[in-house]
Amino acid sequence: MPAPRTVLLTGAAGGLGTLMRGLLPEYGYTLRLLDVRPVEGEPDAITADLADLDALREAVRGVDAIIHLAGISLEAPFEKILKANIEGTYHLYEAAREKGVRRIVFASSNHAVGCTPRPRDGDPLIPVDTPRRPDTFYGLSKSFGEDLAQLYWDKHGIETVSVRIGSCFPEPTSVRMLSLWLSPADGARLFHAALTAPDVGHTVVYGSSANTRLWWDLSTARALGYEPRDDSEPYAAQLIAEQGELDPDDPAHACLGGHFVTDPPIWPH
Ligand SMILES: NC(=O)c1ccc[n+]([C@@H]2O[C@H](COP(=O)([O-])OP(=O)(O)OC[C@H]3O[C@@H](n4cnc5c(N)ncnc54)[C@H](O)[C@@H]3O)[C@@H](O)[C@H]2O)c1
Questions:
Q1: Catalytic site residue 138?
Q2: Structural domain boundaries of the chain?
Q3: Cα(267)–Cα(269) distance, rounded to whole angstroms?
Q4: Does domain 6-260 have CATH number 3.60.150.10?
Q5: With b meaning 16 or more CB within 10 Å and e meaning fewer, what string describes 156-189?
Q6: Which of 78, 101, 226, 230 qualifies as a cystine partner to 183, CB 3.0-4.6 A?
Q7: Residue in 27, 29, 90, 138 annotated catalytic
Q8: How remote is the CA of residue 47 from the centroid of ligand 1, in Å?
Q9: What is the pLDDT of residues 201-222, one digit of tens each?
Q10: Which positions fall inside the NAD-dependent epimerase/dehydratase domain (predicted)?
């Protein structure tokens, strides 16, 4: 596949979309932006809901690839997750199939495997083929998205890299995030690798920087050509001084998904 140049970025108004809008053009991409909300400072962005299959057909026309970030990014009632994340992702894949888009990068999440116990000292890193154990309806929708991606590869030859993103924010803000942090610059490196690696079929990768306190195995991401350059460790001393080490007896600290397992934050809209 020739390197993609024009990429549809869904969820462009969101936190990660805003970071990637700033960083991905440096890799030579022309971005077409889509979100259900207006994208600040981007009058050409497409304002459309993932429920609108006709709008998605139009949005994917002529793009080389899609980075799919749009959707509910926290826990919500099942009916809302169903519409935005499950049906919405299906609509996007259908539009891609109809219009001949061959590569999608799907924003999956650590919450697809959130009920997996986190490694303790000396335990092996969590492999990418660990059984999925969603911690919320949100995580369940990401698990569905990965299966949908597999189906569209097996049946229709659409390639996907499903990136189980840890926490992509400018800085880690919790002790848990020291293990899961994906710096924005490494996020752009990883998306670029996912867009350009040859013959990915459907590949699942974990999305983190090269953190000293990493919980999961980055080898499938590295196999795409991803070379993370950042590490959360410089933030560790201050965060641990403020918040303490993760308490092994606290159920909110026992699993990969952290407090999503016990007390997930709720989507506000
Ligand atoms: N930021 C992270 O660290 C992180 C971690 C794991 C997974 N993810 C995933 O990455 C993606 C982006 O995350 P984020 O932190 O930027 O979330 P966000 O909530 O800031 O952004 C999501 C965007 O999707 C849009 N959206 C929601 N429903 C839509 C619909 N029906 N149609 C069109 N657009 C819709 C929202 O308006 C919003 O701008 C999400 O899919 C999220 O689940 C992010």
A1: yes
A2: 6-260
A3: 6
A4: no
A5: eebbbbbbbbbbbbeebebbbbbbbbbbbbbbbb
A6: 230
A7: 138
A8: 15
A9: 999 999 999 999 999 999 999 9
A10: 7-168
